Amino acid sequence: MKLPALFLGHGSPMNAIEDTPYSRTWQAIGKQLRAEYGRQIRAILAVSAHWVTDGVAVTAMEQPRTLHDFGGFPQALFDVQYPAPGNPELAAEIQAMLPQYRIAADQAWGLDHGTWGVLKHLFPQADIPVVQLSLNARFNAREHFKLGQSLAPLREQGVLIVASGNIVHNLRAFDRRHAENSKNAYEWAEQTRSLVNRWLAEGDSAALTNDAAYPPFLHQAAPTPEHFWPLLYIAGVQSAEETPAFSSDEIVGKSLSMTNVTLGL
Questions:
Q1: CA-to-CA distance for 91 and 101, rounded, in angstroms?
Q2: Could you give the CA distance from residue 117 to residue 7 in angstroms, rounded to a whole number?
Q3: CB distance 254 to 173 below 8 Å
Q4: Whole-angstrom Cα distance, residue 223 to residue 57?
């Protein structure tokens, strides 16, 4: 059985502990995954915007720590623990299946908030082993996509692939007056949301991965690429017969899109 694959727009770390439309959507997705695929999911492979490295690494410890890689938030957020086990065996499998990438077995990282912030709602019991894959800072969009393609067989081996970032992510332009308002997005943010959604819906991987040809408004919407890159892994594992589904497809603070993209659900 081929498992679904998810890209989740994680937004503010506070979504991890607050009752928001986004946390409720993740909870609903988690309940559906449990009901339809619960026995088939042996592990989760997470790709988060918040782990960027020189080269590719995969967490390989028995018990990854919960990283609180942020500042300026309430103590309640720092108190959160997500004690999911690791899976060194899966980490070794990924290394073996992709020798060309020379993937390092990491013993120091853990699960950052881009990962546990969404998994806490998908699988609150923290009972499914989690392995996290880093983003290679040296890769362009096409190279991230190709690595995603190489990971596609894992979907038929009991591995749920969960990527976490934001398609539109310009925090310098974030308007706190509209932090909970999905209206009045900047034109460049809305243009990017619409264009990227169309590329995904049409399966236009050539356009999606040609970052040298991205229009100026997309660069404005993603002035640094690390929150955009995880999306490319889900596009990479998409099969020809799959149509992506979109949820929470809105922009908050005028410059942050909360769009989720799911395959197989």
A1: 13
A2: 13
A3: yes
A4: 24
Q: Which amino acid is at 247?
A: S
How many residues are given for the chain?
A: 265
**Per-residue model confidence as pLDDT tens for the chain (265 residues):** 899 999 999 999 999 999 999 999 999 999 999 999 989 999 999 999 999 999 999 999 999 999 999 999 999 999 999 999 999 999 999 999 999 999 999 999 999 999 999 999 999 999 999 999 999 999 999 999 999 999 999 999 999 999 999 999 999 999 987 766 667 899 999 999 999 999 999 999 999 999 999 999 999 999 999 999 999 999 999 999 999 999 999 999 999 999 999 999 9
- Torsion sign across C-alpha atoms 21, 65, 54, 88: negative
Most distant CA pair in the chain, distance: 49
Distance CA 188, CA 220 (A): 7
Catalogue all structural domains in the chain, each as residue range(s) with its CATH number.
5-167+228-249+257-263 (3.40.830.10)
The answer to whether the beta carbons of residues 253 and 175 sit under 8 Å apart is yes
The neighbour count for residue 12, using CB atoms within 10 Å, is 21
The CA angle 159-249-76, to the nearest 5 degrees, is 70
DSSP run (H or E) holding 141: helix 141-151
Dihedral sign of CA atoms 25, 28, 33, 34 in order: positive
